[in-house]
Amino acid sequence: MTLLPIYVDEVIKTALKEDINYIDSTVDLLLSEGISDAYFVAKADGVLSGLEVAARVFSLLDSDMQVDILYSDGQEIHTGDVIARFHGSTAAMLKGERTALNILQHMCGIATYTAKCVKAVEGTNASVSDTRKTLPGLRPLQKYSVLMGGGRNHRYNLTDAAMIKDNHIDAYGSITAVVEALREKAGHMLKIEVEVRNLAELEEALSVNADVIMLDNMSLEEMSKAVELTDGRAKLEASGNVTLDNIREIAETGVDIISLGALTHSVTALDISMKWANAQI
Asked: Are 112 and 270 in contact (CB under 8 A)?
């Protein structure tokens, strides 16, 4: 997967304008046109994501910045690993340091937690997926990081597929009614996912040939029964209160997909620092 450069630059410019505003009152009032060498070093073990995005922060501030990328996104990194080196404007690196690290640490945190979840379900039928519970403006970066951790992406937005959730069903009257109405208007390329809260709703969703059925907050026993009842007629997605502690048990019920909002909305940033090899002011 390649992130669109126009999007990446927009995210970075927004962050830099938020952080620098008019001037950097420390750097701009103190420093001359010095040239320095610096590097990023991992201070924890994890999975890399967003290194080129972070490096782009410095390139936007100094078009002559020399960047040496030493690891690729998706690779495991370990405490003490130097993952990138930089040679260029001292002022540019000082101004961009926090923005670059904020992006890099967050993206690596997502990739690292995703990788742990993927490892936890190894040997089962289940794949690990994200959700739309992302930070505004950062969805592509976050979903990219899920891929770097070995996970899969759910919908990017509301246009990608039709997901009929409990509020749609309650507003429209029934699963059958809402799926039939949607099929009358939808194009042939649109997949339909139906969220169900119990086995009775599951059977109704199967009867109208839903492409994917989300098992919402079901017990392990209910999910196992749902897999048996479905018998391959639809993809089954488990969702709700999924954690690293229980994801293996959920996978062992036989579901096809396990989606976690926690992959993107509550991960811990991976500890990465910027150090100076040769600073000049």
From this structure: yes
